[in-house]
Specification:
The complex is a heterodimer of chains A (442) and B (122).
Chain A: H1 7-18, H2 22-29, H3 33-40, H4 48-58, H5 62-66, H6 71-83, H7 88-91, H8 94-100, H9 102-131, H10 133-157, H11 164-198, H12 205-215, H13 232-236, H14 245-264, H15 267-277, H16 281-288, H17 292-299, H18 304-310, E1 316-321, E2 326-330, H19 348-354, E3 360-366, E4 373-385, E5 392-402, E6 415-417
Parallel strand pairs in A: 3-6
Antiparallel strand pairs in A: 1-2, 1-5, 3-4, 4-5
Helix pairs in contact in A: 1-6, 2-3, 6-9, 8-9, 10-11, 12-14, 14-17, 16-17
Chain B: E1 4-8, H1 12-24, E2 28-32, H2 35-44, E3 49-53, H3 61-69, E4 79-83, H4 88-96, E5 101-104, H5 109-119
Parallel strand pairs in B: 1-2, 1-3, 3-4, 4-5
Helix pairs in contact in B: 2-3
The chains are: A alpha+beta (442), B alpha/beta (122).
Chain lengths: 442, 122
């Protein structure tokens, strides 16, 4: 019998099913909990004797641990059962259920996966409603106009005498604000209408991968340990958030990239260097003798605990190819990244494509009345060559950090950029591709 | 002597309405859309009351309040914060930074006047 690479995953699923802690199972079969942990993460192979012992304690056949097929089904069925609070006695019959009714079990597993995906969509939409920079600003505009109209109308209507010139001014103000209100409301409705057809969920593989990483705060602890033995495919396998083969393949690509980055800049030495040099990507690249973009990527996937300990901000990261298509997005609060279509051509990310292998650092401010300041680092390098006289494939990377307070005193005014033309209030921008829906608001 | 109120608000029509109702109450009203520029002036010659918007270009209302509370001349200055952001977290942050009163927009003129009278009662 060929022992599958996912035996560990199945052992883990069966252990969870029986409600056993890792340490308890390890003790029962005479191994250490840390060794069992490695096995469960498919990082150590299981010997025949140990496998038999595990199967015995878990009350299943050895085949059930070794053969592909039903572990993911059982895991999904268990997740569905836990969601509905099924009692333990019923839960223990899950083997019987999946064995006797595999078709129904598959329906249940698929429904569970769909529910989980829909929950993520709801969470995403809710997040968007709360944090969407355009929505926030448009509502602020409307509330400001309403405040002005209400306050001014009260003055005009409170029965006290008002000098004619004040009266004329207030009438003018109400006229202005009511026009602003009407236009703001129309623009907001247009914006919401435009979003309806787009918001069909997290269907695109890239979005699934970003959502999967986002749930982990863009940090995979496995990458900080023994990366040599880490198989990205094993890490990605069984992740319910990655619902399609395309998203799993894409996730494997990124995990492989981050694995290489973590090996080139191991956590211990990187931590020391950060303590000495601070968040200085250029110095870190020189210190480790690695490409600048590798440092930018590595800084975007640091363990959150390390960031917290060193007082480092949560970063944003975008990566694009020669076409300008965003291949990877890690969002940062206050710096909107477009979900569809092209981003702002003023971003240093795109300037880097014009000057490959040149390190770029720039101060940016986001366009709009409440613009926020950021410091970004960008770099483009050759990802692939197709031969003499054939196209070169470039990849540009941009790390986005909140500007330090000291940057506010910088004499050079930061470049004002948007997310995409559609939601950018810089109406006279020479890089504008299409009219802004904010034209009637700002 | 006439009491002096400073209004830091970047919406000109709201400033104008506030200027009118406060003037009618007997206040000498100064208006500015730029909190950063007014910080130095307030240190040298603090008003009797500050009405402060939260979302301003440049320094936010929180930044200004924090700076005021850190200095002797303005540590006890009555500050009424008016904001379109009425979420609990903003109110909590304003209170943490030492705001005297917090009101959300849209506001009723009568409520602003009542708050101002209360805050400056002897």
């Amino acid at each position: 019998m060929v022992r599958s690479a996912l035996t560990g995953t199945r052992i883990r699923a069966r252990r969870n099913l029986r409600g056993l802690r890792q340490a308890e199972l390890a003790r029962a079969v005479g191994v250490s909990a840390s060794y069992l942990n490695l096995i469960e993460h498919n990082r150590r192979k299981v010997g025949t004797d140990l496998l038999a012992a595990l199967a015995k304690v878990l009350g299943v056949s050895v085949d059930a641990l070794v053969e592909d097929g039903d572990s993911r089904l059982i895991e999904s069925a268990r997740a569905a059962a836990e969601r509905t609070g099924l009692d333990r006695a019923e839960l223990e019959r899950i083997d019987e259920f999946t064995g006797r009714f595999p078709g129904w079990a598959k329906v249940l597993a698929e429904t569970e996966g769909r529910v989980a995906r829909l929950e993520r969509v709801v969470e995403h939409l809710n997040d968007r409603m709360t944090h969407d920079p355009y929505m926030g600003e448009a509502l602020h505009e409307i509330i400001s106009a309403v405040t002005s109209v209400q306050s001014t109308a009260t003055i005009l209507n409170d029965g006290q005498e008002i000098e004619p010139d004040w009266q004329a001014r207030f009438h003018q103000n109400i006229l202005q604000d009511s026009a602003r209100l009407a236009e703001g409301a129309v623009a907001l409705v247009n914006y919401l209408d435009a979003g309806k057809s787009d918001e069909t969920g997290l269907a695109a593989p890239q979005e699934e991968v970003e959502a999967w990483l986002g749930q982990r705060d863009f940090h995979l602890p496995e990458l900080e340990e023994d990366t040599e033995g880490l198989n990205p495919e094993n890490l990605v396998a069984g992740q319910v958030e990655l619902s399609s083969e395309a998203s799993r393949q894409l996730a494997v690509q990124w995990v492989s990239q981050f694995k290489a980055d973590s090996r080139a800049l191991p956590l211990g030495p990187l931590q020391e260097a950060l303590e000495q040099m601070g968040l200085a990507p250029d110095r870190l690249a020189d210190h480790f003798g690695v490409p600048f973009d590798q440092v930018l990527r590595r800084l975007a996937i640091l363990p959150p605990q390390l960031r917290a300990a060193q007082g480092l901000p949560s970063p944003g990261l975008v990566i694009c190819d020669n076409s300008g298509t965003l291949l990877f997005r890690r969002a940062i609060d206050g710096f909107a990244l477009p979900r569809f279509g092209g981003a702002c051509p003023l971003w240093p990310l795109y300037q880097a494509l014009l000057r490959p292998h040149v390190r770029i650092c720039a101060g940016l401010t986001t366009a709009g009345r409440l613009g926020r300041r950021f410091t970004v680092y960008a770099y483009a390098s050759v990802a692939a060559e197709m031969g003499i006289g054939r196209p070169v494939i470039l990849r540009a990377t941009m790390l986005i950090l909140p500007a330090a307070e000291s940057d506010a005193e910088d004499a050079t005014p930061p470049l004002s950029v948007g997310a995409s033309c559609r939601t950018c209030p810089q109406l006279d921008c020479p890089a504008r591709r299409e009219p802004s829906i904010l034209m009637t608001v700002i | 002597m006439e009491k002096r109120v400073l209004v830091i608000e970047d919406e000109p029509n709201i400033s104008e309405a506030l200027r009118f109702i406060l003037k009618r109450e007997g206040w000498r009203v100064e208006v500015s859309a730029d909190g950063t520029a007014m910080l130095g002036q307030m240190q040298a010659d603090p008003p009797d009351l500050l009405i402060l918007d939260l979302m301003l270009p440049g320094l936010s209302g929180f930044d200004i309040l924090k700076s005021l509370r850190a200095l002797d001349m303005t540590r006890d200055l009555p500050v009424l914060m008016l904001t379109a952001k009425g979420q609990g977290a903003d109110r909590a942050e304003a209170e943490r930074l030492g705001v005297t009163r917090f009101m959300t927009k849209p506001f009723a003129n009568a409520d602003v006047i009542a708050a101002v009278r209360e805050m400056t009662a002897p």
